[in-house]
Structures are given as structure tokens and as C-alpha cells.
Amino acid sequence: MSSYANHIATVQARFDAALTATGFDSVLIYAGQPRVAFLDDNAAPYKVNPLFKYWIPVLESPKSAIYYKVGEKPVVFLFQPRDFWHAQAEVPHEEWQQHVELVVIDEQEKMTAWLGDKLAAAAFIGEDFAEPVASWQVKARNPQALIDHLHFHRAIKTSWEIENMRAANKLAATAHLAARDAFFAGASELEIHHAYLAAIAARETQLPYNSIVALNEHGAILHYDMYQTKAPAQARSFLIDAGALYKGYCADITRTYARESGFFADLIAAMDDAQQALLSEIKPGISYYQLHVSQHLKIAQVLSEFGFVKGSAESIYEQGYSSAFFPHGLGHFIGLQVHDVGGFLANDRGDTIARDPRHPFLRLLREVEAGQVFTIEPGLYVVDQLLEAHAGNNDFNWQRIDELRPYGGVRIEDSIVVGEDGNNENLTRDAFASLANH
Ligand code: GLY
Ligand code: MN
Ligand code: MN
Known about the structure:
The protein has a 6-stranded mixed β-sheet with strand order 4-3-2-1-5-6. Strands 7-8-9 form a 3-stranded antiparallel β-sheet. Strands 10-13-14 form a 3-stranded antiparallel β-sheet. The two termini are 35 Å apart. The protein is an alpha+beta fold. A hairpin with a 2-residue loop joins strand 8 and strand 9.
């Protein structure tokens, strides 16, 4: 069986279990359609429903839908309108077409006519802000129990999904190297962003999220994307968090560079060591929360060794000091979505795992299992809004912190496939290692 055949069989089995457990026998998954801006006739970039691309790698055919009834072959209604204003995305002949019944439609009414009474018995999953979708009579719209069941099981990736993420990481790593070279050549943030896109012949809307392209102090702004058009007089540091998509699957990679050797280059090396040390702790059975805390302790050790904060790693963590420098979560599931779903689900019945108020931004609390894919992305930044809470505290070496501020901060982010017994795969490092100029 090919890996895609195995994938679609798994998706089908997961839908069978989810539909049966939640009282449905069929589902209509709508691909979605572009939203038009307020008082305007221009559409925002279209993003396909992730549960649509879970079945088939068709990303740019809005108004399409998949009808699936338990135990039957899925029916794909591929929307190809007669429209002389717009080009239509080509849908190449691919393996998925052998596994579905393909019905090409040029009007949505042709799908509802084909479905007839079946529509009223189906659960609907998708966006329904537009007509005629908003008026379709279905059994239920986006039932939470069905969605929770599907989201819980999506955490375990099929081998086809992992192959796609390997390819996405290779694309993103290629673009990262072009961005790195542009930084060392003295480019502005906007020029670096363009170098990234050009390296993989992508447009901005084809990336999974807004790239973070940050020189100097901007590295401390966690989601910085206001690219400056002029290069600063001195570009001391560069933090880039940028990804790529392959067949609808995401890469999410961060790297940080220092222009010169010295204090900031040493800090990057120490954070890289802390991230690598954590990777060796990942194995089935441990909770992701434990990994997050363990990473805090390693960052607390770096804070102590570099003289930013006084005390042992434990005391720096226990007093909440490390959270002022590392405020975000260790990482998140990744797959069809960059922040893939289900990180808080305790089971497929929709129960959730209680969050720890000490770590409000941690998106993943599940136990680690073989087949999961998640990011590991420790950071250390000078975020003045967070440091204000510690003003006047002599455990903090404010002079040393002032020395770091002009560099922004450090983040290093890889995506990890969990293997049995800690036999993990680092999709990101493997991708960089496969490129000649890494
Ligand atoms: N690039 C978004 C994140 O790292 O979560
Ligand atoms: Mn991430
Ligand atoms: Mn990222």
C-alpha cells in the first residue's frame, strides 16, 4: 500500500470512529471560500479548511466539498466554475483521485441536487458565512463533539503526513539559508523577506504564517512582522521564524544569528546547547508540560551563567524570573496547521487537561506519544514590558540586561517526530544537513 493509500484509509477509519461515537452517519466537509473585505469587492487570501486537506491535498479549489458516509467511498465535489475573470488552479492527476468518487461541479446547486435527502442527514464541517452554504439544511453545523474526536486523533501523524513535513522543512530550510545570506550581505528586513520567498518561488500567501524577520531589538517582539525597508546602520543580530507548506503540511523554523563573534554569539550557542539537551529528553510517556519545565530550568541556568540573574536554576525558575525572559510555550503540535489542534485534549470525548496559570501560553499539555510531531522552540529575550514587574529587584543584573537589549533575543525552533523509545527524528536539523551550503 502506498503511503497516501495508507493515509486516506487512516483518515477514513478516524472519521468512521468519530461519526459513530457522536451520533452521525455522514459528514459534508466544505473547503471554504474567500472572505471579501468590508465595503469592498476584494477577497482576503483563501485558506482551505484543514479537515478538507486532511483527506486530499487540494488547497486552492474553494467551494469544493467532500461528502463521506460511514463505510462508503468519499465523494469529492470539485468546484471548477466557468469564470472568465479568474484563472482556475490546475488540479493535477494524482493518486488521491483513485480513492474517491470525483464529481466536478460548476455550480454549488449541482452538489446539493446530487446529495438530495442526504444533505439533511449529514453533519457539516466548515465555514458558512456565505450563501448558499448558510442556508443548507444539514443535521448539525460544526458539532463540537465530532470536531473534538477528530482533533484528538489528528495528533498521531501518518507516514504520508511525515513525508510531507519532511519536504516542507526542506523547502523552509532552503529559504532560511537564503535569508541568512541576505542578512550577512547587509539587507533590510523587507529585502531578507523577499530573499526568503524568492529562494522557494513562493508568494507570501503561500507560507503557513507571517514570517518573523527581525533585526536587532526587533528580535524581542515575539510576532514581529512590520518589516523595515531600510537596513539599520549596524545589523548586530537576526532572528527569523519562517516556514513553508508542502501538500498542505507546515514547517515552522526559527534561527538566530549574530553578525560577529562575542557575547551574543555565545548566548546563541548556549541556547542551542540547551535546546539540544532537551531534545534528548523527549520520549513516549513523558508529558510535554514536563519538557516545558525542564527547558525553563535549562534557560534559567543560561540566565545565571551569563550573569543576567543571580541564583541557582531552581530558584530562578521558582521565583518566576525565567518567565520574564522566556514568556511563551516550549512549542506546539504541527501538521495541517502550524499550531496544530488537540494540544489540550485529554481524550476523544472532548475533556480538556487543566492549564497551569504559571504557563498561560503553553499550547500543548498532552502526554508524548510515538507518531506525534511538535516543535521545540526555547527563547530568551529582553521584553521590557515583562521586566517592569521586576524593577528594582537586585537579583537582576540590569547592566548586563542593557547589554543584551540591542540584540533583541534568541529563539531556536525545530520540529520533532516522536519515535519509539526516544528514537526521534528532527525534521528541521535533518533538512538543513541535507543542503550543501548549510
Ligand atoms: N511561528 C509561530 C510559532 O513558532 O509558533
Ligand atoms: Mn512554532
Ligand atoms: Mn515559529
